[in-house]
Amino acid sequence: GQQVMQIPQYQHVQEGEDFTTYCNSSTTLSNIQWYKQRPGGHPVFLIQLVKSGEVKKQKRLTFQFGEAKKNSSLHITATQTTDVGTYFCAGRDGGSQGNLIFGKGTKLSVKP
Amino acid sequence: DVKVTQSSRYLVKRTGEKVFLECVQDMDHENMFWYRQDPGLGLRLIYFSYDVKMKEKGDIPEGYSVSREKKERFSLILESASTNQTSMYLCASSKNRGWKLFFGEGSRLTVL
Q1: How far, in Å, CA of B52 to CA of A78, rounded?
Q2: B93: Cβ–Cβ under 8 A, 6 or more apart, which residues?
Q3: Is the model's pLDDT at B2 over the cut of 70?
Q4: DSSP single-letter state for residue A32
Q5: Contacts of A19 (CB under 8 A, 6+ apart)
């Protein structure tokens, strides 16, 4: 079945450094979503990418969807302690009506 | 904003007990989901429902059942709890298929 692989599993950075997490799917995705889960919290939706090659920005966060719609990335510029948490990608296949398949997440820690 | 409420944040049960996890959403969403979250395994879909009285198996339905008698409520049932069902259980809802998910706070279940 479809798999969404996410790397790295953990990332430790110094405050101010950049951070990137990558997702790769075994199949072409109709869209991909990104979620953030703060420590002790629940996943919260960040963004959805739909178009091939799409790039979206939210302040210091940049999201990309690959040309082949099989990979995606989240890049954070100049991390802050408020960025701490686990970032999940979730890909959807089977058309836009299919279920989401979540990656295992990247846990980000930021040292002040 | 959408509110997804899970009845219990923490539960401790004994092996063989029947366990009910309740989830209520207040935004008239069509779709509701139950996930379990385990370290290193990410979020795995147990069951989902696209309509009242409708249910479909997710990726790991064994040992679980669900009930959706009303649109706003989706219950997860463990008929006979086992220690390998110790986990964080997350309920989510979405307006329609292909839309973003709103998660509840989670229910941490420990089975002794």
Answers
A1: 46
A2: B2, B4, B23, B25, B27, B29, B31, B32, B33, B74, B101, B102
A3: no
A4: E
A5: A11, A13, A75, A76, A79, A83, A108
Contact B25, B32 (CB under 8 A): yes
Rounded to 10 degrees, what is the CA torsion of A106, B37, B4, A32? Answer: 40
For residue A18, what are its two tokens? 């950049």
How far does the CA of residue A96 sit from the closest CA of chain B (Å)? 5
Burial class (CB in 10 A: 0-12, 13-18, 19+), A95: exposed
Span B35-82, pLDDT tens digits: 999 998 999 999 999 999 899 999 999 999 999 999 999 999 999 999
Q: Nearest Cβ partner of B100 from A33, A104, A105?
A: A33
Q: Do B42 and A44 touch (CB under 8 A)?
A: no
Residue B99 has pLDDT above 90, yes or no: no
Give the contacts of A82 (CB within 8 A, at least 6 positions apart).
none
C-alpha A46 chain-centroid distance = 9
Partner residue facing A105 (CB), from B42, B102, B104: B42
Query: What residues does A109 pair with on adjacent strands?
Result: A12
- CA B102, B105, B106 angle in degrees (round to 5)? 105
Other CB atoms within 10 Å distance of the CB of residue A41: 13
Q: Is B90 on the interface with A (CB under 8 A)?
A: yes
